């Protein structure tokens, strides 16, 4: 390395890492590195140059060794969620299959609007050694490779073709990741030769910079329109989305609802915006929701949606609301704010709710609020019965109830694809704000353990005495479990609940509900499996260094959970649950799925007719 009075000679890789090390963010008056470190698996495409650059900054940017590139990306997503998108992790993977493994994680981060930086190896820019190991050759376009597959799942994408390019690309990537309206993953393809090339970078490029996340004020005209519409409401309702968390607007949401006496329902991403005991919290909305929230959604005439992209599980594929209901959408992103003919208020949730409240002289009708609260009381009674156990088969809901009763209010709960997101969303009673992470934006199996590991890394930076608890089905466990080992190696304790129902039971349920016979979902129904047998998950987890035990019922689960809380390392608890009995039966809106229009099966035909009978309720707005 050579340095003059105004420049320093660095490789491209060294410049990237040096720049990242000097980017900070202010959070509640405290400065943190905006990049908390990274997850890395080295290969020939990133070890020699990027690995060399990372070696010298192990304190500033700790590098966690992953076991699988996809799970590294999930861990980065879990970390970003825990930090409310204010900080992120990078993932580095080698050229070829290592980088390709990150595609699913990039899709998850994109769908959930989460910051994640991918620093991935690429083919040689000179092409002198082509074709190289793991290179995908495109005969008509030699510039087109595996890394181009990341373009649709990245918010920012670039291939670094010259060392000077990072002077523009790095700030642009960071600006994207910190932009509330455009937040998502950033991808930088790093050709193996370019990583090692040098350039005389200006020293000013590496000066410490403190970033702040932008808060966009709402437009006065849009605000006035929202005020005018809300004043006409006879049955108002607020949909509280995950954007409220990211805006750190929980207090403003609560104040707004209390001041104007408007019932609040939560999306899946918005779970834990309000405590379960708050009198205006009417419950979760939609396909995995509650009878209470869905009942008032059907009657609401003016709906204020805050920080939500209104995906189909929230809207019941747009059957959850009255055809003539009017929507106001507060969102930092204009694309989300204008969905389904909403009256848009483009702006930060915290600023917009405060401004809207200041202009709004309105109180919701007392009888409407009372009616909503009555629905919530009925739902609470249903949940209490649903999570209780005794003389009936083990269920997801029972396990959720046991953990809910014994965990600390600040413990973080994680779930993802399969049946558990629905069961957690419907049955979990929020004990503290921002403590629930149900990944249903991309509905990605395998996030449960990897995402929890990332969340635990972030949690340990601020709340080291709390636990991260993840609910995981046997199908998701088999898909991606190696970060149990990662958590043990890194001494980032998790509590993993493995609930074994013998396969992909929730898809089997959908298969049966649409008139189809059980086929290829439960192990017992796979024609290519002559003799099904269960996995010894406790032995498997123990082999990765975790403490592990299997319990027979929810009562034993409670005792095991106490031992897990007392343990100082990752603890896995396994319990068998019934694949057919014990599902939460209430609280579901319609969900559009494709069913066969012609079939030789009477059951499938009847199910198709029954399924389609709810389509008349579907709003046709764009």
From TrEMBL:
InterPro entries: DHS-like_NAD/FAD-binding_dom (IPR029035), Myo_inos_IolD (IPR030817), THDP-binding (IPR029061), Thiamin_PyroP_enz_cen_dom (IPR012000), Thiamin_PyroP_enz_TPP-bd_dom (IPR012001), TPP-bd_CS (IPR000399), TPP_enz (IPR045229), TPP_enzyme_TPP-bd (IPR011766)
GO molecular function, one term: acetolactate synthase activity
Segments forming domain Thiamine pyrophosphate enzyme N-terminal TPP-binding: 40-134
Domain spans labelled Thiamine pyrophosphate enzyme TPP-binding: 438-574
Keywords: Hydrolase, Thiamine pyrophosphate, Transferase
Cellular component, GO annotation: acetolactate synthase complex
Ranges where the Thiamine pyrophosphate enzyme central domain occurs: 224-356
GO biological process terms held by the UniProt record: inositol catabolic process; isoleucine biosynthetic process; L-valine biosynthetic process
Family matches, as PROSITE patterns: TPP_ENZYMES (PS00187)
Family: Belongs to the TPP enzyme family.
Alphabetized PANTHER family for the sequence: 3D-(3,5_4)-TRIHYDROXYCYCLOHEXANE-1,2-DIONE HYDROLASE (PTHR18968:SF9), THIAMINE PYROPHOSPHATE ENZYMES (PTHR18968)
Protein name, as recorded: 3D-(3,5/4)-trihydroxycyclohexane-1,2-dione hydrolase
Organism from which the protein derives: Epibacterium ulvae
Lineage: Bacteria, Pseudomonadati, Pseudomonadota, Alphaproteobacteria, Rhodobacterales
């Amino acid at each position: 390395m050579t340095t003059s009075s105004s420049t320093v000679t660095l490789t491209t890789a060294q410049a990237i890492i040096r720049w990242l090390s000097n980017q900070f963010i202010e959070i509640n008056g405290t400065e943190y590195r905006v990049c908390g470190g990274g997850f890395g698996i080295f290969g020939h495409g990133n070890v020699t140059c990027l690995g060399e650059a990372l070696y010298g900054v192990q304190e500033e940017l700790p590098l966690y060794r992953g076991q699988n590139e996809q799970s590294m990306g999930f861990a980065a997503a879990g970390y970003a969620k825990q930090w409310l998108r204010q900080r992120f992790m990078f993932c580095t993977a080698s050229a070829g299959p290592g980088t390709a493994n990150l595609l699913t994680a990039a899709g998850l981060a994109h769908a959930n609007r989460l910051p994640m930086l991918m620093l991935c190896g690429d083919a040689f820019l000179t092409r002198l050694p082509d074709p190289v190991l793991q290179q995908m050759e495109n005969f008509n376009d030699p510039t087109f490779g595996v890394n181009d597959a990341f373009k649709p799942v990245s918010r920012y994408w670039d291939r670094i073709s010259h060392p000077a390019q990072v002077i523009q690309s790095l700030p642009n990537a960071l600006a994207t990741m910190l932009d509330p309206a455009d937040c998502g993953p950033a991808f930088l393809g790093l050709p193996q030769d370019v990583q090692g090339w040098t350039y005389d970078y200006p020293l000013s490029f590496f000066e410490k910079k403190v970033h702040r996340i932008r808060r966009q004020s709402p437009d006065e005209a849009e605000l006035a329109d929202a005020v005018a519409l809300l004043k006409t409401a006879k049955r108002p309702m607020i949909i509280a989305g995950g954007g409220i968390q990211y805006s750190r607007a929980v207090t403003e949401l609560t104040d707004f609802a209390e001041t104007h006496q408007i019932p609040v329902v939560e999306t899946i991403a918005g779970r834990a915006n309000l405590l379960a005991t708050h009198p205006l919290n009417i419950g979760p909305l939609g396909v995995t929701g509650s009878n209470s929230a869905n009942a008032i959604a059907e009657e609401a005439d003016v709906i204020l949606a805050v920080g939500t992209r209104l995906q189909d599980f929230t809207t019941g594929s747009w059957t959850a609301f009255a055809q003539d209901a009017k929507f106001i959408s507060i969102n930092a992103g204009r694309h989300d704010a204008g969905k389904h003919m909403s009256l848009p208020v483009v702006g930060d949730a915290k600023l917009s709710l405060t401004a809207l409240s200041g202009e709004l002289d309105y109180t919701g009708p007392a009888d409407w609020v009372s009616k909503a609260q009555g629905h919530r009381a009925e739902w609470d009674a249903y949940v209490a019965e649903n999570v209780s156990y005794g003389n009936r088969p083990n269920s997801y809901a029972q396990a959720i109830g046991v953990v809910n009763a014994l965990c600390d209010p600040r413990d973080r709960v994680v779930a993802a694809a399969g049946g558990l997101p629905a069961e957690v969303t419907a049955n979990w009673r929020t004990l503290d704000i921002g403590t629930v992470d149900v990944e249903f934006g991309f509905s990605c199996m395998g996030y449960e353990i990897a995402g929890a590991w990332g969340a635990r890394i972030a949690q340990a930076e601020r709340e080291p005495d709390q636990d991260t608890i993840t609910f995981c089905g046997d199908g998701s466990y088999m898909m991606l479990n190696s970060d149990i080992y990662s958590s043990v190696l890194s001494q980032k304790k998790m509590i993993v609940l493995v609930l074994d129902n013998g396969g992909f039971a929730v898809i089997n349920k959908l298969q049966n509900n649409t008139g189809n016979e059980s086929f290829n979902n439960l192990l017992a129904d796979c024609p290519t499996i002559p003799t099904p047998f269960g996995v010894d998950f406790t032995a498997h987890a123990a082999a990765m260094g975790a403490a592990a035990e299997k319990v027979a019922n929810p009562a034993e689960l409670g005792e095991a959970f106490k031992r897990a809380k007392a343990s100082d390392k990752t603890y896995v608890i396994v319990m068998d649950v019934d694949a057919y009995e014990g599902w939460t039966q209430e609280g579901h809106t319609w969900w559009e799925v494709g069913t066969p229009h012609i079939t030789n099966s009477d059951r499938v035909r009847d199910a198709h007719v029954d399924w389609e009978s709810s389509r008349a309720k579907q709003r046709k707005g764009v």
